[in-house]
């Protein structure tokens, strides 16, 4: 087996082994292999976008373990959507917009990118932390998913597109697009409200034949606000100043852990809603 597959599988097996000999494990061998294969794109000495790392890992592992055209990686996380595209110029020239024929294409996806509403330019100034939290906009997860329900149109680069999810994978990865620049200097602090159990993705996305399919949250990767200040609780968390990303991971029915760098500690499920979600992984029931 390729070195990355062998070292990653070893870390995962040791992490979830019910009778492991040691109380701690070391992921450094796996990390070093990632540094080498990514040609320094990801490393221990610099901060990188965890979503870029996730997509790179999925595609790299797929290339290493695939048989013919598919692999266990793509069979687990890759879904499919239908994209209808119109040219804005054609729609403006035709008086009957509904008569303009769309170009239909099929596109696989590893993650659903969720566009947050723009941050308000003006808010009511307040020196009180509670009033400041009230000024932060909020949006429901179901509202963000409407982008892929086959009825919402999106205009980009002179094109009008409509996305319709046609096949839901066993695990859905949702990427909340919080940052407007590659260096993450500008962050959208909008709070995303979501349930943890039995989210009807099939119904929300109007997927034919999957209306009754529901998903449970298993991973919630979060980002602490600028200078270590959380967008929701307003507490200054100095431990996150150098590494602002961390993850909540579920084990079993309702046991949650917070993973920050090499630190793993159990947390209450209510903690999931106190930070800004960036990546979510949902498991099909």
Question: How would you describe this structure to a colleague?
Answer:
A 7-stranded mixed sheet has the order 3-7-13-9-10-11-12, with no helix packed on it. The protein has a 4-stranded antiparallel sheet with strand order 2-1-6-5. It has a two-stranded parallel sheet with strand order 4-8. The relative contact order is 0.12. It starts with a helix and ends with a strand. It has 8 helices and 13 strands. Helices cover 24% and strands 30% of the residues. A hairpin with a 2-residue loop joins strand 11 (255-260) and strand 12 (263-267). With 285 residues, the protein is of the alpha+beta class.
Topology readout:
Elements: H1 3-16, H2 28-37, H3 50-65, H4 72-77, E1 79-87, H5 88-93, E2 103-109, E3 112-115, H6 129-134, E4 138-140, H7 141-145, E5 149-156, E6 159-167, E7 171-177, E8 191-193, H8 201-204, E9 215-223, E10 245-251, E11 255-260, E12 263-267, E13 276-284
Parallel strand pairs: 3-7, 4-8
Antiparallel strand pairs: 1-2, 1-6, 5-6, 7-13, 9-10, 9-13, 10-11, 11-12
Helix pairs in contact: 1-2
What count of helical segments does DSSP give?
8
Give the C-alpha Rg: 21 Å
State the low-pLDDT regions, or none. Answer: 227-237
Q: What helical percentage do the residues reach?
A: 10-25%
Major sheet size, sense and barrel closure = 7 strands, mixed
Please identify the structural class as seen in this structure. alpha+beta
| Helix/strand order, N-terminal first | HHHHEHEEHEHEEEEHEEEEE
- The end-to-end span amounts to 31 Å
Strand content: 25-35%
Q: Tell how many strands the DSSP assignment holds.
A: 13
Output the strand order for the largest sheet: 3-7-13-9-10-11-12
Overall, the morphology is globular
What's the overall average pLDDT, rounded? 83
